[in-house]
Design goal:
Helices cover 28% and strands 29% of the residues. With 596 residues, the protein is α+β, with helices and mostly antiparallel strands. Among the domains are: 241 residues, Deoxyribonuclease I, Chain A; 156 residues, Sandwich (Immunoglobulin-like), CATH 2.60.40.10. A 6-stranded mixed sheet has the order 3-4-2-1-13-12. A 5-stranded mixed sheet has the order 5-6-7-10-11. α4 packs across α14. The longest helix is centred in the N-terminal third of the chain and has 18 residues. This is IPPc domain-containing protein.
């Protein structure tokens, strides 16, 4: 299942060394001509004529691919030579408003920066349970616009800092999960390649009552992604929340609206290489587990023992515990979260600061803001909750980030590319990936018995000067007989290694043929001559590993004529005598008939 999942992801994702290349190729020229998928990716890579030292043989494409890979590494190390960076202040907020709205709501504390901070350049505000009325939900499907949505937009605009003018970049709504992204007017013209999308994860896995909304845009040569979500509720629904988080990452499709009103797919929101800075926030619904409501309240109100918030989070927070578990960690570990020093954000009695007493919910930090960044700095400045708000059973949460916008100087970049090509010309032999197998090309399994599993390992070490991507090639007959490998593909960084575990099991399909080879006196009878492990380096040579081993004869897989002539158990019979007896039986009866 894991291998199939990887294959499915690869069908939707480009190679990791060329962000969004396939997606950009499929988009209209008007949308990819003025955008750079990465500020470390050349705006225009050298064409085939520039790569003059490549031969035009069958491996030419692989060689060009390897050179582009190496050139990208070269540019990544020198990106500051041709890139200018400027600071950008991003204000992310999330609030489950519990279907509440009043035009008198004062959002100043939620939206205004602290006194020692300048006005944000970008606002990204996520709402959950924006409007739960049946009429509004019906209107959402008919018009994709609701009156409540417009009211919240106007209320937010009214409470933005008065020292600057802000324009709406994009709004996206999935039933009652609503995302609003706004920017200073001075930046609005620099924002382009706007993409957006939604992913429902609610009832039966596709109901819009839960899910995520996302907006991605490019500012300068840096891509920003904002994801607002509402994950599965319930104190015993950790698995559901994990599945929702994963589905939003892997399935939420980012689209852009064409000039003719068409919507075309560009990428998935979870493409780590598709965005330099990603903010993931909302009512994630992660709870405190293994502790009672009374114990949480007692610890919070115990003023003689400081550090209650960190203690409760460290011991009982589902999100932190999930990040430490291998089952969930892979999808959460790529994100970071600022330190929390505010009280739980859920569940409160509406109109008061008291924790809810009706449903006896354990107070928890359900509303969170996560982030990740690549190639640019992203530093959280202030992570806080607006505890004074009593409009909803959730408290709003904000986090302000100081991040960067990268802008490529094209002329300086071209000069760097030219130097890179000249450098590559002198390193022709170093362009192709190179790996070695340890301890060697032969995999020794020893003696194998029928139906037992034997384990061996190989270490694939990257000895080249570029990272190496590899995959296991199937043999013409399918899976090599009796041997199963894990993993079957990966990417090895320079100087790194990958341990490949091999499990050999000779079952009913392999054992009779192995018995015949053993009877004929062939070495390494456990495996057929074609049972070769082929490791293909992407853009490089193939590496071969040969499984070795003999069988331990037993009654399994023997002709009945041979069994009838045995005077004692197989394991106690002289091997040479037994081998001659077995060969006589096989020759007299015919191998094919005997095997059947």
């Amino acid at each position: 299942d894991h291998y199939g999942e990887q294959q499915q992801q690869q069908q939707h994702s480009p190679q990791t060394w060329q962000p969004l290349e396939q997606c950009l190729k499929s988009s209209p020229a008007s949308h990819n001509s003025d955008s750079s998928s990465s500020h470390i990716q050349p705006l225009e890579l050298p064409n085939s004529a520039d790569l003059h030292w490549f031969s035009a043989d069958a491996n030419g494409d692989n060689q060009r691919e390897a050179k582009r890979h190496l050139l990208r590494d070269y540019l990544r190390e020198r990106q500051r030579e041709f890139t200018n960076y400027s600071d950008l202040l991003v204000h992310c907020g999330t609030w489950n408003v519990n279907n509440q709205f009043d035009d008198s709501f004062d959002l100043t504390e939620w939206l205004q920066p602290p006194r020692d901070q300048r006005a944000p350049d970008i606002y990204a505000l996520g709402f959950q349970e924006l409007d739960m009325s049946p009429l509004s939900n019906t209107m959402t499907y008919i018009t994709q616009r609701s009156d409540r949505e417009e009211k919240w937009i106007r209320l937010c605009q009214r409470c933005f800092p008065s020292s600057h003018c802000y324009s709406i970049v994009k709004t996206v709504r999935l039933l009652s999960t609503f995302l609003l992204v706004a920017a200073k007017d001075s930046l609005r013209n620099d924002i382009h390649s706007i993409r957006f999308g939604t992913q429902a994860t609610g009832l039966m896995g596709f109901g819009p009552n839960k899910g995520g909304t996302a907006v991605r845009f490019q500012l300068g040569d840096t891509q920003f992604t904002f994801v607002n979500c509402h994950l599965a509720a319930g104190e015993d629904k950790l698995e559901n929340r994990y599945n929702d988080f994963r589905d939003i990452q892997q399935k939420l499709k980012l689209m852009f609206e064409g000039t003719a009103g068409r919507y075309e797919l560009l990428s998935h929101v979870g493409d780590a290489v598709g965005s330099h800075v990603t903010f993931f926030f909302g009512d994630l619904n992660f709870r405190l587990s293994g502790v009672s409501k009374e114990a949480v309240e007692a610890r919070l109100f115990d003023t003689e023992r400081p550090g209650a918030v960190e203690e409760l989070l460290a011991r009982h927070d589902e999100l932190r515990r999930a990040r430490a578990q291998a089952r969930y960690g892979n999808i959460f570990l790529s994100y970071s979260e600022a330190s929390i020093d505010f009280w739980p954000t859920y569940k409160y009695e509406i109109g008061s600061q008291r924790f809810d007493s009706e449903k006896v919910r354990v107070p928890s930090w359900c509303d969170r803001i996560l982030y990740r960044a690549e190639d640019v700095r992203c530093e959280p400045l202030k992570y806080r909750s607006q505890h004074s708000y009593v409009y909803s059973d959730h408290k709003p949460v904000t986090c302000t980030f100081n991040t960067q916008v990268a802008r490529v100087d094209v002329e300086r970049q071209k000069r760097t590319i030219k130097r890179g090509v000249q450098w590559l010309d002198s390193l022709e032999n170093a362009v192709l990936p190179q790996c070695t197998l340890e301890p060697g090309h032969e995999v020794q399994f020893g003696e194998l018995s029928f139906s037992d599993t034997y384990r061996a390992s190989l270490t694939l070490r990257n000895t080249g000067r570029v990272s190496a991507s590899w995959q296991l090639m199937p043999t013409p007959g399918g899976e090599f007989s009796g041997v199963h490998a894990s993993p079957v593909e990966s990417r090895i960084p320079i100087g790194g290694s990958e341990t490949i575990m091999l499990d050999a099991t000779l079952g009913p399909c392999q054992w009779p043929q192995a018995v015949q080879r053993w009877a004929a006196g062939k070495a390494d009878s456990a495996f057929a001559p074609g049972d070769v492990l082929v490791i293909a380096l992407i853009g490089g040579p193939h590496i071969f590993a040969v499984p070795k081993g003999d069988i331990v004869p037993s009654c399994y897989g023997l002709p009945l004529a041979c069994l009838c002539r045995l005077r004692e158990p197989v394991l106690k019979t002289d091997r040479q005598s037994f081998r001659r007896l077995l060969m006589d039986c096989l020759e007299s009866a015919g191998s094919s008939e005997t095997c059947s």
